[in-house]
Description:
Elements: H1 2-14, H2 17-26, H3 33-40, H4 44-56, E1 60-65, E2 68-73, H5 75-87, H6 91-96, H7 102-111, H8 125-135, E3 144-145, H9 147-155, H10 161-170, E4 174-176, E5 183-185, H11 189-192
Antiparallel strand pairs: 1-2, 3-5, 4-5
Helix pairs in contact: 1-4, 3-4, 7-8, 9-10
Amino acid sequence: xxxxxxxxxxxxxxxDANRLKIVGLLSKRSYTVEQLAAILGLGASTISxxxxxxxxxxxxxxxxxxxxxxxSLNTEKIEAVxxxxxxxxxxxxxxxxxxxxxxxxxxxxxxxxxxxxxxTIPAQRKKLLIVLRHxxxxxxxxxxxxxxxVNQALSKYHDDTASLRRELISAGLMARAPGGSSYWRxxxxxxxxx
Length: 194
């Protein structure tokens, strides 16, 4: 999460139009607060505030010359953030700390009655897929089922077993032999994690 906090600090620092302008200017050469204020038409205290935010994120640094501080862009820091974003290796760790199945549970609680039966078959494709992923757990991977067995399993959830059966096949969660002699659960990475 330390890398995630660094990214958050970076994006917060860059989430301002004037700070982006300052970064653009500093990418060309160093400037003083007074020079940046004149160029951007802002007060020196406003520029100092923006530079402070950018400095906290490690994006700019100051070098004293005579009576002035010259600010320059820390290009190494920006390149490091870019590499971090491209590596994607930190993103799974961020996901591990989140409840990524909260929406699925919410949809299921909205569509399932206390006894587990469906109140209705969702019309929205996104919600239907969540319900179908829940229903397909009735079927063991590697096992072939007759249409009658599939209908019996699905009838615990809804009377319209034909629609559910077709939707499971359409979603690629189940497959059917030619002529409908047998059905089986399609193996996928997602179903392997059940």
